[in-house]
Specification:
The protein has 261 residues and is mainly alpha-helical. 36% of the residues are buried. α4 packs parallel to α9 and α7 packs antiparallel against α8. The protein is 78% helix and 2% strand. The protein has a single domain, classed as Heme oxygenase-like (Heme Oxygenase, Chain A). A hairpin with a 5-residue loop joins β1 and β2. This is Heme oxygenase. It comes from Pedobacter paludis. InterPro entries: DUF3050, Haem_Oase-like_multi-hlx.
Length: 261
């Protein structure tokens, strides 16, 4: 492994631990709590797909006429990740993106999908992000999270996009969260089975194979440019802090529900 990969992993370890040990996970004990969590998390799932497609646009040819773009190995890495994320299968064998699978899980769970669907409909109609956020009444922390991700996307710097994708998104869900979901699924499978499947796919695909591909991609893009590595680390730290802020907001919303329930 490249020494700068190891260095970044060491330097971001405190932020990762804050996420892995976040109190939001222990606060989720009922279906209503999980609904609130998912209503915040869905925006991170969506902009993850946007970050992924930004990488594909930067690292491969997505216009006509076609020409070979960049490094062939990097093209293979990003195309393989895109295929797995954008065209996976649900529990019944239907082809779906991970975002669509998460939406299915939200609907089964009874979570409110209107903010995310209204937000996307507004963007599809050509409204800007600020207007789409306002019309959909997106939670502030989710809005802040998406805006931060799109700052990285709009930088048009593939090494920053790769760093955020690689270090800021993978392997950040603790075992206790899986245990909680399994407990809920054992009593209410009609509400949690799709989300349980989504998490299992996350472990199988995102957390293992794709994480290794992403590390290789980031290493190739940063190469031997020390400034690239420094920028990559800073971008990663920002992405992780925004995730902490998003989890903080979900925790407050869950805690308030319990107080006023």
């Amino acid at each position: 492994m490249h020494p700068n990969i190891t260095k970044i992993q060491q330097n971001i370890a405190p932020l990762r631990q804050q996420i892995i040990n976040h109190k939001v996970y222990s606060a989720i004990s009922e279906i209503e709590d999980l609904q609130i969590f998912m209503e915040h998390h869905i925006f991170a799932v969506w902009d993850f797909m946007s970050l992924l497609k930004a990488l594909q646009i930067n690292l491969t040819c997505t216009t006509l006429p076609w020409f070979p773009v960049g490094d062939a190995v990097t093209r293979q890495l990003i195309n393989e990740i895109v295929a797995g994320e954008e065209s996976d299968v649900d529990a019944d064998g239907n082809i779906k993106s991970h975002f669509e699978l998460y939406l299915d899980a939200m609907k089964q769970c009874g979570a409110n999908v209107e903010p995310i669907t209204n937000f996307l409909h507004s963007l599809q109609k050509g409204r800007d992000f600020d207007m789409a956020f306002e019309l959909a009444q997106v939670p502030f922390a989710a809005k802040d999270f998406v805006n931060s991700t799109f700052e990285t996307i709009n930088s048009n710097k593939a090494h920053l996009q790769a760093a955020s994708f690689t270090f800021g998104r993978e392997d950040l869900i603790p075992n206790m969260f899986f245990s909680m979901v399994n407990d809920l699924n054992s009593t209410q499978p009609d509400k949690v089975s799709i989300f349980k499947y989504y998490l299992e796919r996350h472990i199988e695909v995102d957390g293992d194979h794709h994480s290794h591909l992403a590390l290789s991609m980031t290493e190739k893009l940063c190469s031997n440019d020390e400034n690239f590595w420094l920028e990559a680390e800073e971008t990663t730290k920002i992405a992780l802090q925004k995730r902490i802020d998003l989890w903080d907001a979900a925790y407050v919303a869950i805690a308030n529900r319990k107080v006023f329930a």
